[in-house]
Amino acid sequence: MGLDPQAKSLLDQIHAMGGPQLHQMSVPEARQAIAALATMQAQPPAVGEVSDRTIPGPAGEIPVRVYVPQGTAPFPVLVYYHGGGWVIGNLDTHDATCRALANQAGCVVVSVDYRLAPEHKFPAAAEDAYAAAAWAAAHAATLRGDSSRVAIGGDSAGGNLAAAVALMARDRGGPPLVFQLLVYPVTDARRDTPSYVQNADGYFLTADMMQWFWNHYLARPSDGDDAYASPLRAADVSGLPPALVITAEFDPLRDEGEAYANRLREAGVSARTSRYDGMIHGFFGMGSMLDQAGVAMAEAGATLKLAFAARR
Hints:
By secondary structure, the chain is of the alpha/beta class. It has one domain (5-309): Alpha/Beta hydrolase fold, catalytic domain (Rossmann fold), CATH 3.40.50.1820. It has 9 helices and 8 strands. It has helices spanning 5-17, 27-38, 95-105, 124-138, 157-171, 194-198, 207-217, 254-266, 291-309, and strands at 49-57, 60-68, 75-81, 108-112, 145-155, 180-183, 243-250, 271-280. The chain has an 8-stranded mixed β-sheet with strand order 1-2-4-3-5-6-7-8, sandwiched between helices. The longest helix is centred in the C-terminal third of the chain and has 19 residues, at 291-309.
């Protein structure tokens, strides 16, 4: 199908604003631009409780934001990693997303402000992401959570980190994870899929932006061969938690996300792909602007609920 009319209207608004694209900006300028885009969202949904704190990380304290839904504890726990190409994005840019997930899935959400590139190259973000998942599992009770029902999730670069954490948890003997929510995840540094050609420009995220992000994230191109940077290249993806992989039709990352879901299934992992036709990269967090974002959020919440219920 063609581009969704609401997505087209949003892209027209962004184009009308003019100015350089992200990959033509300095890193501070790009961070300011994505923060400004986040302010276009409507008032975020209310949750039972929100608190900011820091947790121990491999190179110092990691800021996290904890969302507790209304209801009766203990709640299942979702550790969530924001998108932004490992370079931009923060707790505030994904505040509305995490609130919606807490409400839809009825779970505590721990949003992780991992170290960003280029100040901190790979594997800094992945190691922070893993440390946060391990901490959440060990301290779930202090969050009114259930340590036996911990999932991970993220969008774009955050989806990449979630996939990496699932691999790390398997390889390092824990923490036990019950599910992975991968929203248009980055899974391969090669950037050679048909969707990279079909959606190279004009649909919010561009091929040039992804090159810019990867150049900042990796200390050297060969780091892209590492499974914790490119989960699709992992020699073995068996023994991982079940997954929902959400993709968008008009997204350079579409094919690599779906390819990763296929690899999981081939390895005996329960993995489902849900492609949103007419949608662009980033749509999942645009609930106040795109109707399909609400549909995808409801799907993510319902799928998480089922995964958590299966572990009761």
